[in-house]
Amino acid sequence: MDMMTNTASSSGGLPSPAHVNSEGPKVLRAGYIPLVDASVLIAAAEFGFAQKEGLTLDLVKDVSWANVRDRLAFRQFDIAHMLSPMPVASMLGLGSNPSPTITPFSLGRGGNAITLSTRLFNRMRDDARLPEMASALDNAHALAQTIAAIKARGAPLPTFGVTYPFSSHNYEFRYWLAAGGIDPDRDVKLVVVPPPLTSDALAAGAIDGFCVGAPWNMVASERGVGRIVAAKQDIWPSAPEKVIGMRPDWAESHPETVSRLIVALDAAARWCDMPDNHDALAAVLADPRYIAAPVGIIRRVLAGEFNLDAKGNRRIIADYFQFHSGFANYPRPSHALWIYSQMIRWGQAETSLNKARAAASAYRPDLYRRALGDANAPDDADIRIEGNDEGDCFMDGHVFDPAELPDYVASFAVKSALPFAPHSDET
C-alpha cells in the first residue's frame, strides 16, 4: 500500500525576529492541559519568545482533551496543546466532533509513563517472582500472569485509565499490554480519566493503573499509591507526544502569524532543552496558573529522575523529555501514519489508501519548513521506516514500514477482533 511577559533567561537567549510582522501584533488564544509537555507553549508565553515575534499567547487551562478539541473547533481557541493523534483522528472524521485540524509543530518527545496500583504491582511481583527493577516487558508479562489468575477466579478485571481514546497514552498502554500477551479489549477495562485526577482515582481504588503524562505518574508513586512500570521510552522512544493544533482554514488565513508562532516555539523549545533553564522552567510550571504540582517533582521529572515507588526504587531516564533535540519538533507524516496504524489495529479506523492520505495530511512539515527553512529540518524522507534505528526501536521488535501498513497491522498477534465501528471519544 503506497502511502503517501517576562524577560527570558540569559541561558539560551532569544531569537531575532524572522521579519517584520506586517499583520501587526497578534493575540493568540491557546488552550492547554496542565502537563509538563506543555512546557514549550508555556515558556513561549512566559519567557518572552512569543513577544519577540510580535505575538501574545493568551493561555487558557482546560480540564479535558474533548473540551480542548471542541473549543478549537468552535473558534474559542486559535491554537491548542493537543495529543498527537487528535489531528489525525480529526482528518479521518473520527470522534464526536471531528473538525479538521492540522499540526505544523510538535511540542517534543517523552513524558508518558504507565503506573499500576501498589496492590496490583505487589501481586504481580509475587505471582511472577519479579525482581524490584524488572524491565517494562517483564512487567507486562507479569501482569498477564496475574490477569490469568484473576480471570480463573472469576474476579473483576483490572480497570485502567487513559486520557482520551485518540491519544498516545491509549495506544502506548495498549502496545505495552499487547506486548505482554494481554488483550486490551477483553482482559482489562480501559476508561477515560483526566490527567490531574489519575493519582486520586488510583488512591481511591477507582482504577488499578493509568498511562498519562508527567508529572502525574510521579505524584502517584511519591504518594505511595502507585508503581511506575514502564516509560514512553521503553515502548517507542520516537513516539510523537503533544503537538500544536490549529484549524486548516485559520492557518491558511494567517500564514505570517503561523510562521512567527513556529519561530517563537522553536526558540522556546531550544531554551527548554537546556538543563541550566530547568529551575526557572520548573518554578513557572509549578505555579497554580499552570500545573499546580510540587516544584521538586517537576524538577526531577525534567531531569528524568524517577522515584518508581515510595520505597526508594529509582530510575534515571536520559532525555526523558526532548523538547527540541533530534528534530523533536518536526511534524513527520510517517508518525501520523503509525498513529493511523494503531487506530486500525484497535478497531477505530478502516484501512484505505484515501484514509492513509488523510491521516498523513494532518502533519504539515511544509509549514514548519516555510517558517524555519530546510536547514532546520531533518534531511531524510518525511515518510520513512520507523523503529529500525539503534536506540529507537519498538519494545516488541516490530518495524513500521508505511508502504506496508496493512501487513504491519496484520503481523500483530494481539489486535482488535471486533469489526470497525465509529468510536465515541468520550468513553
Automatic annotation (TrEMBL):
<protein>
    <submittedName>
        <fullName>CmpA/NrtA family ABC transporter substrate-binding protein</fullName>
    </submittedName>
</protein>
<keyword id="KW-1003">Cell membrane</keyword>
<keyword id="KW-0813">Transport</keyword>
<dbReference type="Pfam" id="PF13379">
    <property type="entry name" value="NMT1_2"/>
</dbReference>
<dbReference type="InterPro" id="IPR044527">
    <property type="entry name" value="NrtA/CpmA_ABC-bd_dom"/>
</dbReference>
<dbReference type="GO" id="GO:0012505">
    <property type="term" value="C:endomembrane system"/>
</dbReference>
<feature type="compositionally biased region" description="Polar residues">
    <location>
        <begin position="1"/>
        <end position="13"/>
    </location>
</feature>
<feature type="region of interest" description="Disordered">
    <location>
        <begin position="1"/>
        <end position="20"/>
    </location>
</feature>
<keyword id="KW-0997">Cell inner membrane</keyword>
<keyword id="KW-0472">Membrane</keyword>
